[in-house]
Amino acid sequence: MNGDTYFTRKGNYGFNLQLVGNVPSNLWIADYCLGMTGATHDAEAFKHTAAGKFPDWFFKGDEFAWVDSAYPCTKHTIPVHKEPPSHVHENAIFDKYVSRIWVCSEHMMGALKGRFQCLRGLRVDINSKNSHAHACRWIKCAIILHSLVIDVEGSHSAHYFRDLHTSVQEQQDCAEPEHVDDEGVVADGEEK
């Protein structure tokens, strides 16, 4: 196993887990891709979700996914603007409102990690294909149980766990120091 492939852009070792939810968000996970290593680009990993592979089946009618600027713009994925177009006033307003929806997807990940604290830093040695598969099964079980509990108890239970996994804890998980101002805006411009 090549450890470098697990090294993420955030400076830690991990997997690239793509989650696809719904809006308005009840924090239920509608689709996911698991198994890609941390060095895999998000847009590449998204191609392996059902939403990425079979968009005409996954999205009904005019449905689409809001995505960040790293993803391509397609019939079913609409990214926020990259620089320099993001500095145009109308685009900045659009991106601000889209970011509020994007926050819902971050809440979905927060609810998953809040409910299953073991995901905050899955402490397993990955030194073979079997240990990689074992770690993936662990995460997959958490995803399935998370969505099952939401189906049974409703989204209010997930909202409780969402608040247990704060942006500070996410920074600790990722070993990425960030500055968040009073409005929840991170120094690099992403809203949490």
Automatic annotation (TrEMBL):
Keyword Glycosyltransferase: no
Cofactor: a divalent metal cation
Residue ranges, compositional bias (Acidic residues): 173-192
Keywords of the record: Metal-binding
Region (Disordered): 172-192
All residue ranges annotated as the DDE Tnp4 domain in the record: 2-146
An example Gene Ontology molecular-function term: metal ion binding
Domain of life: Eukaryota
Keyword Plastid set for record: no
Signal peptide (residue range): none
InterPro entries xref list: HARBI1_dom
Protein's UniProt name: DDE Tnp4 domain-containing protein
